[in-house]
Records
---
Amino acid sequence: MEQIEKRNKIRKFIDEVIAEVKKVAWPKKRELYGATAVVLTVVILLSFGIGVVDAILGQLMQFIITLGT
């Protein structure tokens, strides 16, 4: 009896998931490509910016360390 109830609950859950997935407003291919381009551009720019800040701080730390010796 418990097995049947468990299966029914699982089946109901799966049916609800399928119903919700059908309600999703999936983006069009063009929107998807545009959003992907924006994300990649931001990631590249942030990576470059973080790299520049890291290099500057590394040089600053090296300068501070050499002052102490």
---
Amino acid sequence: MSARSPARRAHRPVVGPCVAWPLCYTTALVRGRCRMSRPPRFTYAGALHHVTLRCNNREFLFSDASFERFLGVLQRARGKFPLALYHYCLMTNHVHLLFDVRRDDTLPKAMHWLGTTFAREFNRAEGRHGHLWEGRYRSTIIEDAAYFLRPMAYVDLNPVRAGMACVPADYPWSGHRALRDEDRERLAFHPLYVALGANASARFRAYGELLAAEAARPAASLATTHFVGTPRFVRRMEHRFGLDRPGASLVRRPLGLGVFASGPRLGDPRRRR
């Protein structure tokens, strides 16, 4: 395959108003050989990211002890890198993180450190070898001014939609209880969350109403697009990262609003075990 002939793979449209997108990769000539390049990472100082890390082969590897260990590594990452962690949810075969970054290089450095450090400690504790994570993390840039609270709810509802809890408060391995208690040792609190009420109980009550409304919507996925926000925000991100230039079809196109307004459920039925 030549560098001028990128491999293309067609995908069917997702449910809802979204259109199908081609998952296309460019090829690069390295030392006389042609190879597949990695999809690009989009980030910048001040960007709000939803990030997913998934276990290799989607295996169900994590236990309560694993969750405790991951939270310890996550707190160390908060002290090591310039980021603000707003929410998290640890599932048995993947994790969700919601945070913003203070420098252009924070996302790749922090996620590399977090993933490799936890994998090393997990493998040592479990007496296992080999890869823990299924490839690299997935990240989506969120328009925080308009959409911050909905991704928070999306993260909170993961164990409920997976059948692992009746309500978010029943699940111990998310940031929900830290939100309730406004535990600033575990989470940072975004100005939009703080603006929900005059005190902690009022804010948490208002957030609970938003959670109930979000639970009634069709389940969405944040893992299949690069950007989530208003059409204007998505166009601005496309321009910022050169996706509106000729040849931009060689990277995965963002779906913007549609993917979060409606779409298929995240994950597969095995997660319900």
---
Amino acid sequence: MSTCYPRPGSIKISEGETVTLLSNYSNAQRHTGVMGLFYLLVAEPSPKPNSILHSTDETGEIVILQNAIGALTAVFGIALLVGAAVIYQRRNQRDQEGYESILM
């Protein structure tokens, strides 16, 4: 049994249009089971995303922007570096407030 369906968003049915389902059977391939089971899924168009992290490509599918992920990763990395620098600074300051080191 084979299935055939278009990609989501590739077919648009306007109000008042008639949808016709056409089935072609060929005995060139051996078939078993039900030969005439069909279903049609219809959905309302989804609202356009208003997030800066989403965009639509030419097929209408929602894709997460790679640039946004890269920017978030960079911000996270910078935050880690700043946190490490603050911890290092505080440890050095605490060590210097106590005793003086003896150097010869």
---
Amino acid sequence: MPIIGYSISRIFVDTKNRSSDYKMIEPHVHNHYELFYLSKGSCTFIMKSHSYNLVPGSVIIIPPNTPHLIHYTSRQQSVRTSILFRELDINFTNLTFISDMLKNGKHKLILQIPPMYQVHVEQLIRNMEAEQRFNDTKISPTMLSLCLVQLIVIINRFSTGIDTTLMDELHTTNRQVNLAATFINRNYNQRISLSDIADASGFSPNYLSRKFKEDTGIGVHEYLTYVRLNKAAIELAHTDHTVTEVALNNGFSDSNYFKDAFHKAYGMSPRDYRKKDKNSGADDSMDTEDAPLASIPSDTSIQDMLSQE
């Protein structure tokens, strides 16, 4: 059962270090938006039974009343920021695109900030943390709101959208389609063809292609590519294998095709992905624990909830 979170009365910002041995036992849910930003490390984010691999610069916007769970996977410390807010906290009548962004469905809620713009995002987060520590009850709510709007504008302008259609679980009860998906997940690292997948499902190749697309909303090849990219991202984060080795280990016979597909899905090259992860582990001087959040007695319950992520 999901852990039920707390209501909030204003914007909250919380940055924490997380190691791979930190565990969220159960998903939790709250009745406000959460903007989750990963500045260092890597994690697997599970939301509505869908699994997403996040890397430095990844942003995920969690709608209200949406159960979610996080597993941190980096060999180094990960650093995440959670910003909790309500729609009324950014209720500017001339900024309707923000409301459209928040309400436009899950396919727009997972984004990747290119490395050159991550410094701007992280500076805004530090500004919000400083304002929260200042805690002027008259001015701080407005300042936090303005900073959050600016943050969302930057994310909206410079981010690369991740096609979450390819990351969804397969919503089908068709036994043959599930057999095909199971075969893909077990053999993604092999040189498998549509005929091989069709044989495992009991369908002809043409019929499987049509049925798989009808039942799941994505094609067989798209699903196979997603599974391979998902596994490759994990290998990049946890090994020193070359990019070519990672490609071959995960079923890509052409390393150039792998690089292009990876960049399209994650917004950066495999090499930049790995470099960002390793650099994040080496630079502890900017650790957000150097500037901890002020302890606000009336907000203890919110801090408790945020400590779970």
